[in-house]
Amino acid sequence: MSQSLTLPCGSSLKNRIAKSAMSENMASVDHQANELFVKAYDRWAQGGAGLLISGNVMVDSRYLGEPKNVVIEKGREGLLNLKKWAAAGTLNNTHLWMQINHPGKQSPKFLSHKPVAPSAVPFQSSLAKLFNTPRELAHEEIEEIIERFTYAAVTAQEAGFTGVQIHGAHGYLVSQFLSPLHNQRTDVWGGSLENRMRFVMRIYQSMRKAVGPYFPIGIKLNSADFQKGGFTEEDSVQVAQRLSEAGIDLIEISGGTYEAPKMTGAPAAGVKETTIQREAYFLEYCEKVRSRVSCPILLTGGFRTFFGMEQALEAKACCLIGLARSLALNPMFPSQLLSGESAVSEVKPLSTGLKSLDKVVPLEIIWYTQQIHRMGRGMNPSPQLSPLVLAITSAWDMGIQSLFRVRN
Known about the structure:
- The protein is of the alpha/beta class.
- It folds into two domains: 343 residues, Alpha-Beta Barrel (TIM Barrel), CATH 3.20.20.70; 60 residues, no CATH class.
- The chain has 15 helices and twelve strands.
- The strands form three sheets. The chain has an eight-stranded parallel barrel with strand order 3-4-5-8-9-10-11-12, surrounded by five helices.
- The longest helix has 21 residues.
- It starts with a strand and ends with a helix.
């Protein structure tokens, strides 16, 4: 894990440990970064990881995934605050990449009265109560969103971030375009896989032209959506291959959507017990895709021990180990791993004690986000935080935010 890694663009990561993205949801009221980001990322940069990837930064203030997302768009750059954030996250020769995102239809009702998507396909599960049916994007709007992604990448580069990551997973807009379940268009943006991947390919190509050949660009990509009629594993392999051929620097593998949330901590249905014992949820997919791509692979999800991480690297299933929740509980976890300590992730299953509440509240997200907020306030993470109290508080806050949105 202590070996450096040179990316296709020529940049070098000091080791093979990466902090994967976790949504911070702590921007100021005008959706700018602030001192909370500076303090949290200072902690992580001191923690020893070679690469830190930010939580999703949105490209359009009209469409947010969460109330306190950072937004980069013309007239709302907040460059000074971004520079402070970047300076903190790049201490100790650490890379800090900005994850750039658009939620598409995954923008809650209290944030978007009429969200946008490739097609006007509503959520089919209980989530339909939380998200309005989206409006289908016009061709001109798709082109504008590509420009917004590019503008955010250029702004990140100017602010001092050392790379960017396109969020192409977890059911957000790029993921929606890739999925035949959510993308039912009949024009050049839909239908065949070639057309469905056109959106992400155009985003990458536009970014690359704007930031130049030596600035790292990565992508977070689903191994599959785990939904009937959705984005399949073979689709994913082909998209990864095309992006690699186009020159992308790093592909991070994840999986799932809000409707099938495999990214929140549970292995996918049908995963072999032997794979679970090897810790990484998407390890088998990585072993398949490695033979089809030339760029490095970052594998995130399920890693708990030094042994499991080393095993994945030695098997060449991936080039980088992605850790998220482990670093929200212990920002020094990478240093402990690299020093040879018998460090084990402190991540554990969470429950409010009320099954009905566990089903409706995104407890894993809420609880770990609060740990990030503690670091942003200069405090240490606290494994003793009550899941029940946080779930009730979050439900109350969501109600207040919904009222505020309706009145404005």
